[in-house]
User: Fold this.
Amino acid sequence: MQFSRATLSLLGAVAVCSSLVDCGSGGGSSTSVPPKNTQAIVVSGGPDNNYANGLFTTVTVCAPGSSNCQSVPNVLVDTGSYGLRLLASAVGSLSGALPQQTGSDGNPVFECAQFVDSVTWGPVKVADVVLANESAKSLPIELIGASDVPVPSGCKAIGPAEEDVTSLGANGILGIGLFIADCGDACAPASAANPGFYYGCMASSCSVVSEPLNMQVQNPVALFPVNNNGVVITLPSVSGSSPGIGGSMVLGIGTADNNGLASAAIFPPDKFGNLLTTFKGKQYAGFLDTGSNAYFFLDSKTTGIASCSSAAKGFYCPSSPVSLSATNSSSQNGSSSTVNFTIVSASQLFSNNNDFVFPSLGGPNPSTFDWGLPFFIGRKVFIAIEGRPTPGGSGPYWAY
Amino acid sequence: MWKCLSPAVFCTLRLTVSVVIFAVSSLPAFGALGGDVSSVSSDQAHLKASVRVLAGTSYSVHEMLTPSGTRVRQFASPAGIVFGISWQGFAPDLQQLLGEHFEEYVAAVSSQRGRRGRGVHIDTGDLVVETGGHMRFVVGRAWLRSKLPQGVGADAVQ
Assistant:
């Protein structure tokens, strides 16, 4: 089936699931109702129908303690960040009903959220956030592009600000990775060196402030009343590129009959949030990230795979498909697992304009191994939150 | 202190590992990409990052660790020109590191949107920038093809 922007926005969660080949463990016949802890997710072209390997879901935000709510579709599901950020334009009139967070000095708090090559800028607001049937009450979130306060120079110095659907490729980013707070201790009051995620703003003059952990923009899953120790992301296997696939994000690990670890291998990360990936006899930092839209690893010189020319810059373009394997391991517990994967020329994959799911898409990434969205296709991956007990031990860890 | 006037004799041989404690939290005002590495010494006293110099055979590496844990390496040619920069940790102040090439970088990032969802791989002919990672662990490297010392490949910039 071909996804267009119109059909995507009209499809409800269950409809997306039943219209596709497989919905993972939560799916089934069109009459079944997903368990209460299951959030539908979909790999699609996103709001502008141009995103490759984008994992999206619909998030409901409400003014705290009220039934004044707005559903925001096409929010990127990202295990490589922490906390919810939404475009103010997608939240619409509800924006005005979400309280502004103020710092200890009484000034409104803004955030310069730092991603790999860009930032998002906007006020920190407080909202109730609903996924599946659970609500995180009074969660600090970032509302991108919600104010006339200009991006401070210190924030601009990191990279360009993504402030609309065109630059973000989504209506927002749902960070449900290993950690709770987005910046963590580095931005908290006791930190000796604040990397500058949070600003206090008077009129249009902003300066970096410290932000206590419980006030930072944070992973909504950690604030749910139950099933708050992590998530399980399941995407079906596919034989090749396709227009779209549906899957599930189950809340909790080992808390219900649909989120047990079974025999999954557990990989606790190091303090930076990385595991070890061994490729051709050398070890690299690695991580599992739904927010990366390809297998991003090393460089042409190391892999022997040609980079693409202009049409698909930033990806690999081997002259014929390349089969590879690498081994993930954890220095924390000695777990190890070999992953086999295939890289197909990106320019060849992108030649079909109707496809947005690419299980064989790869690209370079300096000195690291980024197991992006293609890794999650055909797998059930557990993401356990820091400090939270699970049947497999305390988070943080990945398991698959 | 690190000045190395003779291209034939490597300063790194004379510069054993040194650690300097600095006083502000922003990245040090050391030579930006394409700039002159000799500006480093005059600025060191104002910086808070620890710095050490690694010996190399055909270039020198100035490594800094900012207090928030970001590791920045600056690769300098025998002529004292910064031909490459790498970083790892929280996202660094790229305006500082890329210097006059920052605007070129911003323009290239903006034009690469759509297909690649995280990280960039930019090549403007002379300037090459590659980034990747996740929120608390950003990795990247940048180099200028025209400034690579003879016999040194871009893969030296790691």
Observations:
- Chain B has one domain: 11-145.
- The mean pLDDT of chain B is 73.
